[in-house]
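User: We ran a pulldown and think these components assemble together. Before we commit to crystallization trials, I'd like a predicted model of the whole complex to look at. Sequences follow.
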Amino acid sequence: MLFKRLIPKIVVEKHDSPAPLIFKSILTRAYEEFRVVGDPISQVKIQQSNLVDEILLVHRNRGLFDYTFPDLVLRTCEYLNTPLTVGGAVTEPSHARILFESGADKIVIGRARSNFALLEWIVSNYGAQALVISIDYSGDDLRFGVHKFCEREISLGYMSFAGEIALNNKSRDGSGAGVDLSLVETLQGTTRAPIVVGCGVSSVEHIADCFRAGCDAVTLSTFLSQTDQSIKQIRSHISTLGVNIRTRN
Amino acid sequence: MIDIIGSPSSNARAVYFAFLDMGIDCKIVKEATEISNSKKIVLPGVGAFGALSKFLYDSRLYEPLQLRIAEGAKMLGICLGMQLLSESSEEYPECKGLGIFKNRCKKFEGDDLRVPHTGWDQVSVNSQHELLRGLSSDFSAFFSHSYYFPVDKNCSLGITEYGVEFSSIVVKDNVVGLQFHPERSQSNGRKILSNFADWK
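Assistant: Here's a predicted model for the assembly, 449 residues in total across the polymer chains.
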């Protein structure tokens, strides 16, 4: 039986110090930088030694695709024995290609999710399992109701391409208020793709709630830096709550 | 030396790094002349059956690969690379696989089934093999696929269940196929790759 997944999310951003333009891993609140944590490659190594199911590496980037980011992906992959999903302003096939060639197993498409030419290109070259479509929304986007919001997303037409759908209510990012699961049921009815949720976890109970709602995976970021439990302990705890999750290799 | 077939959409580099990380000699190859003396070949695969089949034809690797296998070279197909060891796939019925196994790959069907089959799942091993040395008879591995290799008593060494039982490991003489990604399956995967390097 397929196991539910826990996915550490490592967000990186370019920083000027100590060396010019070096990637640092950061913690975010509502997708804004909150605190610098350290070196992304060390973070990946630490996470993958901890019995995680996958790693999500995201370049927080509101501008154009950064062609130095694939180099970080490549350097990460030299040590990697865990599936890697990568995101960061991918808007063209060439961006996706260079990330795949650098070792990414899946690519996250967020802003460009209505660019069918891009989605089609990824699916026909790398398969649907390599495409994660991320819906990053805010509480404000839901002001006309969950139903209206989902309707609009479904009408964009990308659901049939997606290998996975990621749902992130960015208003909850770093808040620890629990994950917004209000879109899950509606979207599960329209796509057969697995659903990944994140933003807002601050307890094991929050994670279990996501799995009980039928989600396949949960991404974790701030929580992992604030809990005194190791991922192994978190997994055992979730497993005792009746969730089918790996507790050993 | 292990030769890894580097088709454009494959994750050959991930497999390359995995061997390198364990101190095992390997290189990525793209042309038929490079495999004429290969003793060990890995065919990794990500993407579509048609694209990989076309790559093998266009780069004239198709027959040399079959020849190397017939001459006893050890061959490891990973994920789509395993599916390419079959005759064909529902994914692109007009494209041919290498035909080492006389099967046709099928698509996961079922109303309640989330497709692709993505994530860690259990592999149940029904008999011992050199490549599985050091692994338990029920281990977990990382999968990411929408099509599957049906169970065949003659060659299915490992079986996984996802709506239907399918082959997660197939073996025929010097050829092994893995539906999961050993290069992404942490210590279990590393063991298999290192066993492949030691396979005599």
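The first strand of chain B starts at residue 2 and ends at 5. That may be worth checking against your pulldown data before setting up trials.

User: Thanks, that helps.
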